[in-house]
User: What shape does this take?
Amino acid sequence: MDPLIRLLIIIVQSYIIGSIPVALIIGKSVGGIDVRKHGSGNLGSTNVFRILGWRWGVLVQILDICKGFLAVGLVAYFFDTQMPFQNRTPFEDATVVKLIAGLSAVVGHIWSVFAGFKGGKGINTSVGLLLAMAPVEVAVAAGVFLLLLFASGYVSLGSIIAAITVPGTMAIRHNIFGVQIEGYQIMVHSFIGLAILVLYSHRANVKRLLAGTENRFAKLQLFKRWFG
Assistant: This one.
């Protein structure tokens, strides 16, 4: 098969995987509702959590994470060593294609072909991509997310800062602590792009945060309850 066609197949298949509207499917199967017409209208785990409860919210979160992880994992079955273009990065060809596949899945989640090109905010699918490629950075970002969530009750705030934390952590590890990260340049730039994409998908949340009208999970403000 022509290398360019193979790469296009990987991009399309990853986009389709990311486009699977898990929240929409769960909402209609469990509650008989279209979650786009309730709560924030977002096809993500937070909205499902708010509408159907934490059990279904967690299920949607896990499945959305799996979409990013699966998109990256399937590259091994559809890709060989020949690239359709010259690879000028220090990464192996397969690793570059994994990044492309993971980002395609995130785009699919945000602009789902199965839901009128609307979807979620891309956080969970991004986590799946990052788990497959940068587990240390994911662990740090998860800690930041939980800290902000328990302090503020804002899922959106925690998600945005966690997304920014990933390339930041990688830069600190590499440039300050001297950790040798293979293909650092393409990795950190790809994750900066991913953070920008997540920030763009949260633009309405940012406006509400600045205006003080963002939805807050007050029950999750553990720090306030413990020390307030």
